Amino acid sequence: MFGLEKAAGQQKPGRSGGLPKMASVGDFNVLSSSIPATKVELSVSCRNLLDRDTFSKSDPICVLYTQAIGNKEWREFGRTEVIDNTLNPDFVRKFIMDYFFEERENLRFDFYDVDSKSPNLSKHDFLGQMFCTLGEIVGSQGSRLEKSIVGIPGKKCGTVIVTAEELGCCRDSVLMQFCANKLDKKDFFGKSDPFLVFLRSNEDGSFTICHKTEVVKNTLNPVWQAFKISVRALCNGDYDRTIKVEVYDWDRDGSHDFIGEFTTSYRELSRGQSQFNVYEVINPKKKGKKKKYINSGTVTLLSFLIETEVSFLDYIKGGTQINFTVAIDFTASNGNPSQPTSLHYMNPYQLNAYGMALKAVGEIIQDYDSDKMFPALGFGARLPPDGRVSHEFALNGNPQNPYCHGIDGVMEAYYRSLKSVQLYGPTNFAPVINHVARYAASVKDGSQYFVLLIITDGVISDMAQTKESIVNASKLPMSIIIVGVGPAEFDAMEELDGDVVRISSRGKFAERDIVQFVPFRDYIDRSGNHVLSMARLAKDVLAEIPEQFLSYMRVRGIKPLPAPPPYTPPIHVLQTQI
């Protein structure tokens, strides 16, 4: 067994000879290139959707797809929540996207009427779709795009309204709790079933929904559960922006009765529990009709607690080390390396598919690894001299010290291995995952975090064992990036990614999502030897790592250490002889 921990005082070998520069992926600086122009939040509403339910209205969900820049494949980006019994949904769950102003980002919004708990969209009724670009939304008047929903011939499918708002950089969240007193009774046979809806105001005077509380059944004096919301979602960091709160009586058929409303702001709420934060709930229609009308009850703020969210960079600045390990698929399904059709083809003039992916992705991740020494493993090959099959061998041939200096060192070891090992099989991921997990299990104090980069053609033999390894690893300070090369269907890799359905093994679910899958073909041109957008590849490869990292630290209650003071060179006092 060989380790990821470097022996104390061990000398780092010097930079090895390196490979000739072949297919270029361009000089790349992770801190400048991978930071997109801005983050935008998309809010989606629909009007007059198709009604597919016989005895009630549709239960809509919106699914957003983005288009790969290489082969133009549509990939699911995310889903809103399902809203029961309505043809005019205002979805609360937002899509937060990076806006690269220099690139055309094609979007597709699909709408479904959800009929069961199945995550499989083919099990639900299609309600239509809308195509646009992110630039089209951002560039519309007030960044508000209204378009017809299409996709069902001969039917009017309604309209969709998508609003974009650039997100501020405020990192605070607030934990708030509210109660109400003497709300209007709306139900004939019982009391009301009240819930609150929070909306933030927009520049043009319209409002965007940002939170819904739970429903408290059969009471005019509800106490709602405390809820946490980011200040960005509540008011986009503008403390004086109007926040409107609407009070409703829940009805099963979706036609919730309006009780009344009030307005406030973050600045007012931040005063906490006080006489300033008792609000009269006003129903404007009732107020206009009845002279003696006072209010429809009151809502009181019970508590207000500000929490500053720590970021990935806070931990890095505080000294947390990121350790990357690279594992490469040497199985026979990749094709014979002497043949041009092989993903491992040893072409003297340009990088093969694995070399391209390794160099492009490696140059992105090495900026986050402080010592630039990468353990590099291979799996699924027969090794000399006796032809035994190994699922975790050192690419540099040294099991005691599998470290390669920088990505160039990994590339050199990879090409050397190709000449000496025989591609074989089966394709087992579990051994390399368990290998990194053993080291992650020994350092759980937040001082180190481990990232395993697996480059593969996507054909996997040990799916059950891999799922079990991932479920076990989800409790450890580690993440897995899988980069798929070649033209295969990557259904198994998408399943491991766990973005749509959390991965499970033997009835146990992963504690957190730790796998990010990226199909490399989405980022290269048709010739297969040029990366179209290093910035987008960088974003997608690293997209989930900060949140996965933070989820581990949060669950374990590990706070970042303070950053060391900036270095100041010692002052040399020049002594002059008299």
UniProtKB/TrEMBL annotation:
SUPFAM superfamilies registered for this protein in UniProt: C2 domain (Calcium/lipid-binding domain, CaLB), vWA-like
Database matches in Pfam families: C2 (PF00168), Copine (PF07002)
Residue intervals of the VWFA domain: 323-524
Keyword flag Calcium: yes
GO biological process: cellular response to calcium ion
The name this protein goes by in its record: Copine-8
PROSITE patterns: C2 (PS50004), VWFA (PS50234)
Lineage: superkingdom: Eukaryota
Function, as annotated: Probable calcium-dependent phospholipid-binding protein that may play a role in calcium-mediated intracellular processes.
One GO cellular component, as annotated: plasma membrane
GO MF annotations, alphabetized: calcium-dependent phospholipid binding; metal ion binding
Span list, region Disordered: 1-20
Gene3D superfamilies: C2 domain (2.60.40.150)
